[in-house]
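Please decode residue identities from the backbone states below.
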């Protein structure tokens, strides 16, 4: 029997393909950045909420709140402009608009709601709280409203299902508090991590001006097929010949069975050194995955636009997930690609569909169609067999994985 979140809601196949509200009026003033990059921030202005007068900001606080790992990622991206044009957590009107229309109240597209959740009955609008990560003061928040979210509807619209077999729905049901609160954020200090997550301003400063910048999102170690995929994306018809790629993995909370972010970071660092590709740039994103498929593809592309990217590689079943009960996929293989392609012009980010690559004995990596047409001999290694070989310390074929990456994974089991 299917487990549902709160209410018995049945998702249609297109439940998460919510039509966005009309594009906001061109009469709204926008302040474009002048860093020479083609990609303008989402909404026109790159937000920076870091204050120089930290003592004054802290002095206004009457409460202290310890941030969860997911909240910490959201706060960081609000502070540094990764979630521009947001300047705080969404109030009820914005939350409802994003859930139901995939857009802010003014019509600007936005993939998923950014909410501050709590079970604390004492927190009220008007309160100013100090947000901390352990002993480190991260930000302050001035709460503006408090509301009880419609979680079943949120999950149905954002994840396409209210079944808690979906990891996003399960997170909303079991990890998020019963209240959401809107509030203005003031940044104090960026979190201290085992890996540095450069801000949008810092990433934009390292990218070349007046070129297409193609973003590659991943949440797992990069193996040979991934590397072939994002380097070949530079030849895609959607981008210019002199394009570069920004490899921008998420290093925040993700699915329970994924490799920890600190280990993933080490694999990226050794691969960056091993490949030393001048057309490849690297940075890390403090983002917590929702596994929301099509809606998350919009969210990722929007965030990468703030980091200076003009295009986004969207893979088969991107940010997809399977039922924890039946093992069935929640999304079709091309749902995320189709939604992003349909919204690319409005969002201002080109969709670059990833190639379906396979390894062949005769010609190395080629597209699956080419392998079929030429009747080439395909080779494969399942994830299960790969993990088993890792645990046993066995050799991993170099056509499948980089030796440097394999060593990091074996050393950190």
């Amino acid at each position: 029997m299917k487990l549902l979140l709160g209410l018995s809601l049945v998702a249609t196949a297109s439940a998460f393909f919510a039509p966005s509200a009309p594009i906001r009026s061109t009469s709204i003033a926008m302040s474009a950045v002048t860093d020479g990059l083609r990609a303008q921030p989402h909404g026109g202005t790159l937000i920076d909420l870091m204050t120089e007068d930290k003592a004054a900001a802290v002095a206004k606080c009457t409460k202290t709140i310890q941030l969860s790992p997911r909240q910490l990622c959201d706060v960081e991206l609000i502070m540094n402009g990764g979630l521009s044009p947001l300047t705080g957590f969404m109030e009820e009107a914005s939350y409802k608009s994003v859930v139901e229309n995939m857009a802010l109240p003014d019509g600007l597209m936005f993939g998923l709601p950014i909410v501050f959740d709590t079970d604390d009955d004492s927190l009220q609008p008007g309160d100013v709280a100090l947000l901390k990560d352990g002993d480190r003061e991260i930000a302050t928040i001035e709460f503006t409203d408090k509301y009880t979210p419609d979680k079943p509807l949120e999950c149905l619209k954002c994840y396409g299902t209210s079944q808690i077999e979906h990891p996003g729905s399960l997170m909303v049901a079991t990890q998020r508090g019963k209240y959401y609160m809107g509030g203005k954020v003031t940044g104090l200090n960026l979190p201290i991590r085992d890996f540095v997550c450069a801000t949008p301003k810092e990433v934009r400063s390292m990218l070349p001006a007046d070129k297409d910048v193609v973003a590659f999102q991943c949440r797992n170690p990069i193996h040979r097929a991934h590397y072939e995929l994002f380097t070949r994306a530079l030849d895609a018809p959607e981008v210019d010949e002199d394009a570069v790629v920004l490899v921008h993995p998420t290093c925040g909370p993700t699915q329970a069975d994924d490799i920890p972010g600190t280990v993933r970071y080490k694999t990226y660092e050794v691969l960056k050194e091993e490949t030393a590709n001048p057309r490849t740039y690297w940075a890390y994103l403090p983002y917590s995955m929702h596994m929301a498929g099509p809606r998350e593809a919009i969210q990722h592309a929007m965030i990468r636009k703030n980091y200076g990217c003009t295009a986004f590689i969207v893979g088969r079943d991107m940010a997809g997930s399977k039922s924890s009960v039946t093992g069935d996929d929640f999304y079709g293989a091309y749902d995320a690609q189709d939604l992003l392609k349909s919204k690319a012009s409005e969002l201002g980010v080109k969709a670059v569909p990833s190639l379906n690559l396979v390894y062949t004995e005769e010609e190395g990596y080629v597209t699956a169609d080419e392998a079929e047409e030429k009747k080439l001999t395909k080779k494969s290694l399942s994830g299960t067999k790969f993990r088993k070989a890792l645990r046993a310390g066995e050799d991993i074929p170099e056509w499948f994985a980089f030796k440097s990456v394999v060593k990091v994974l074996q050393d950190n089991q």
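Observation: The chain is about 30% helix and 15% strand.
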